[in-house]
């Protein structure tokens, strides 16, 4: 297949591009050109996806069998692209988020659960609804928290920063909130499984790891991955309502239970995660955190100090 990836040079897009090229597909990237293509010889069309005019000018003459829209956050990001290719592609794969779900009484979230109209990811659900009514042969992927090498979001790195420096780990609440992480390689693999699947047309799939973990045990898992004894961690619990952190983020996870069932993706896409949490965190620690020298970088712990000062 000739496949267009919107983005393709950071995190998910890097893994997806490498997998698709390895599978023999012709991959074309569309992005601002700020980062090199992750595979030598992959064509990049440079442009601004937020400009409908520029999308039309640069993509309307192109032919693709499939499109992966990895970085559309709002309907206004994706609709112009979909309008260009509706009726011209076999498959349009949209990267949504499990963050669209309305927090409910029952967990894990399944694909038919209600969505939260106030979610910061509501633009993604609006895009899913548009794609469904437009007749586009689409599939939507809803990951939970994504981790792994080249992660530019503060997730596992937040814990590693404190663990390698033998600092206390400040965790809001009681530390027993349950969350879920999925390795980026597993996510990219699930995305490639969508291609050629008629059953996947018009479907939404939760994609993540197949186990859940509490905040406290995630800290301990990160310690194991970093070669430390989990028992040596000093985990500090605090009430976030007592503090004003301004615009600084004190903790990288939402303070709620947040996890989703991935049974549908496993069943219909013939896919399953290859990484368990510990092996995935070891991969992130060795091949990203240490490899990038972040263990020696200067880190701003001023928010931590604010929390710790309240305990003295």
Automatic annotation (TrEMBL):
<dbReference type="InterPro" id="IPR001509">
    <property type="entry name" value="Epimerase_deHydtase"/>
</dbReference>
<keyword id="KW-0413">Isomerase</keyword>
<dbReference type="GO" id="GO:0005829">
    <property type="term" value="C:cytosol"/>
</dbReference>
<dbReference type="Pfam" id="PF01370">
    <property type="entry name" value="Epimerase"/>
</dbReference>
<dbReference type="InterPro" id="IPR036291">
    <property type="entry name" value="NAD(P)-bd_dom_sf"/>
</dbReference>
<keyword id="KW-0299">Galactose metabolism</keyword>
<keyword id="KW-0119">Carbohydrate metabolism</keyword>
<comment type="pathway">
    <text>Carbohydrate metabolism; galactose metabolism.</text>
</comment>
<protein>
    <recommendedName>
        <fullName>UDP-glucose 4-epimerase</fullName>
        <ecNumber>5.1.3.2</ecNumber>
    </recommendedName>
</protein>
<dbReference type="GO" id="GO:0003978">
    <property type="term" value="F:UDP-glucose 4-epimerase activity"/>
</dbReference>
<keyword id="KW-0520">NAD</keyword>
<comment type="similarity">
    <text>Belongs to the NAD(P)-dependent epimerase/dehydratase family.</text>
</comment>
<dbReference type="GO" id="GO:0006012">
    <property type="term" value="P:galactose metabolic process"/>
</dbReference>
<feature type="domain" description="NAD-dependent epimerase/dehydratase">
    <location>
        <begin position="3"/>
        <end position="207"/>
    </location>
</feature>
């Amino acid at each position: 297949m000739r496949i267009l990836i919107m983005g393709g040079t950071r995190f998910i897009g890097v893994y997806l591009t490498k997998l698709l090229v390895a599978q023999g597909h012709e991959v074309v990237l569309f992005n601002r050109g700020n980062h090199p293509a992750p595979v030598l010889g992959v064509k990049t069309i440079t442009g601004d996806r937020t400009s409908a005019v520029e999308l039309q000018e640069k993509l309307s003459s192109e032919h693709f069998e499939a499109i992966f829209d990895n970085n559309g956050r709002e309907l206004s990001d994706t609709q112009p692209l979909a309008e260009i290719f509706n009726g011209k592609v076999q498959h349009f794969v949209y990267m949504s988020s499990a963050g669209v779900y309305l927090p409910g009484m029952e967990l894990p979230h399944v694909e038919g659960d209600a969505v939260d109209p106030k979610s910061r990811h509501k633009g993604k659900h609006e895009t899913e609804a548009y794609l469904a009514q437009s007749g586009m042969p689409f599939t939507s992927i809803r990951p939970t928290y994504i981790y792994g090498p080249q992660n530019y979001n503060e997730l596992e790195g937040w814990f590693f920063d404190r663990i390698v420096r033998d600092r206390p780990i400040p965790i809001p609440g009681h530390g027993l909130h349950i969350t879920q992480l999925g390795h980026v390689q597993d996510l990219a693999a699930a995305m490639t499984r969508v291609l050629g699947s008629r059953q996947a047309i018009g479907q939404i799939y939760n994609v993540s790891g197949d186990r859940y973990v509490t905040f406290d045990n995630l800290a301990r898992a990160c310690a194991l991955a970093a070669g430390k004894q989990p028992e040596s961690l000093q985990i500090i619990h605090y009430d976030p309502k007592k503090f004003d952190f301004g615009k600084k983020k004190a903790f990288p996870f939402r303070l709620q239970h947040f996890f989703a069932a991935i049974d549908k993706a496993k069943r219909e896409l013939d896919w399953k995660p290859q990484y368990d949490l510990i092996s995935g965190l070891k991969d992130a620690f060795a091949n990203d955190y240490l490899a990038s020298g972040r263990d020696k970088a200067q880190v701003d712990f001023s928010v931590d100090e604010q929390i710790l000062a309240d305990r003295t």
